[in-house]
Specification:
Layout: H1 27-93, H2 100-127, H3 133-150
Helix pairs in contact: 1-2, 1-3
Length: about 150
């Protein structure tokens, strides 16, 4: 008995894909649109760079202010240490016991100065150098994307 092939299902009629809206603009209009888009992109990149530099400059300024305050506290501690030494000499020469308070106060000022110096160091380190790294990265990505579009 010969083998029979199963009947093939009917094929649906071929339907052409729907046509999208055709862009009827002229070449000059397209070039104008591309130029306008690139110009807008460059303006946005410049604005990003300005914002980033301003943010980092603010961090540097904050660090500088805290650093100055650290210097003030260190200077005050130096004054107290010097007066404490004077009272120590007074204790050794004369039999008074009022000098330890000056050293304790000086130690507190030195601790405050050390803490302020640490905060200042971290703030200055976070903001320097004031380079717009995000804007530079975005510009590199944009250049890379545009280069790939040109077929280079």
């Amino acid at each position: 008995m010969p083998e029979q092939t199963p009947p093939t299902p009917p094929t649906p009629p071929a339907v052409p894909p729907p046509e999208g809206p055709k862009d009827e603009r002229k070449l000059g209009e397209l070039v104008f649109d591309v130029t306008e888009g690139v110009s807008s992109l460059v303006r946005e990149e410049i604005q990003l760079a300005k914002t980033e530099v301003a943010e980092k400059a603010g961090k540097i300024a904050k660090g500088a202010v805290v650093g100055i305050s650290a210097g003030v506290f260190a200077f005050l501690a130096l004054i107290l240490v010097m007066e404490g030494i004077a009272w120590l000499l007074n204790e050794e020469v004369f039999n008074g016991k009022t000098w330890p308070g000056f050293f304790i106060e000086a130690a507190v000022f030195l601790l405050i100065a050390a803490l302020a110096a640490l905060i200042a160091y971290k703030a200055v380190k976070a903001g320097s150098p004031p380079m717009p790294t995000q804007a530079i990265e975005e510009a590199k990505l944009t250049k890379e994307t545009l280069s790939k579009g040109d077929g280079k």
